[in-house]
Amino acid sequence: MPRYELDGQVAIVTGAGRGIGRAIAHRLAQEGCKVTVADLNPETAAQVVAEIREEGGHAFSLQVDVTQQPEAQGMVQQTIEQFGSLRILVNNAGIGAIAPLLETDEGTWDAMMNVNAKGVLFCSQAAARQMIAQGEGGRIINNASGAGKVAPGKNLPLGAYAASKHAVVALTKQMGLELSDHGILVNCVCAGIVDTPMWDLIDRETAARQGAPVGSIKAQAVDGVPLGRIQKPDDVANVVAFLASEDASYMTGQTYNVSGGLLPY
């Protein structure tokens, strides 16, 4: 059931075709938001929109490559054409890659930085300009990951991914300061071991490198979670909904752990 007064507000969620982004899009729609479901894959985005509409919500889908500044700007423009305004942006789109840093090639590094960091910048710029023009403030919420705060570890070769997510934390802090005069609050969430296709990829490729059974890497990671269970996408969506609400109206430039106690700071 809805918990916050978000009726009629307009939100964009990037990377919303599956996993955490899908859960966020659903939760914001349940809270009464009109949601732009943006994803590189138009089929998964359309499926999420169909699900939201079936539940009685309002949504439409867009195919968006967040690494392309014109597409980020077009995403905001089409949202305005569809819904009339923009209040909330959730920068969720992201990719991962499994490789020790000494084996990380330029293409892998660039892909991580382009999607996970530059995409956040481009989408935030486009959304913030619209919010400033509206003059009513807004919310920008970034999905940074626990890898944006701590190194994943020598047995989890996610160095380039971690570097890109550390960049998201830095962007959040600085943008929160720069946009504060406009009433635009910028925060991010740092999740832990989430039951998503990305963690299936991490498990599969890391297990192959170590000669371990598929499933064992994820199981080891979950064993380290103090709350004793793998995280669900809805666990992240719950905090995003809170940050989008008036209950979080005195919070900006911050990172919030949503990790079952896994992250130390």
Tell me what you see in this structure:
The chain has 265 residues and is an alpha/beta fold. The chain folds into 2 domains: 10-192 and 231-258, NAD(P)-binding Rossmann-like Domain (Rossmann fold, 3-Layer(aba) Sandwich), CATH 3.40.50.720; 196-230, no CATH class. It has helices spanning 19-30, 42-54, 69-83, 106-134, 159-178, 197-210, 216-223, 233-244; strands at residues 10-14, 34-39, 58-63, 88-91, 138-143, 184-191, 254-258. The protein has a 7-stranded parallel sheet, with helices on both faces. Strand 5 (138-143), helix 5 (159-178) and strand 6 form a beta-alpha-beta unit. The longest helix has 29 residues, at 106-134.
Proportion of β residues? 15-25%
Report the uncertain regions.
none
The shape, in one word, is: globular
Number of helices: 8
Number of strands: 7
Distance from first to last alpha carbon: 31 Å
The CATH architecture of the largest domain can be named as 3-Layer(aba) Sandwich
| Integer-rounded radius of gyration | 18 Å
Q: What is the class of the largest domain in the CATH system? A: Alpha Beta
Strand-pairing-aware structural class: alpha/beta
Give the oligomeric state. Answer: single chain
Helix percent reads: 40-55%
Residue-averaged pLDDT, rounded? 95
According to CATH, the fold-level topology of the largest domain is Rossmann fold
Overall structural domain count: 2
Major sheet description: 7 strands, parallel
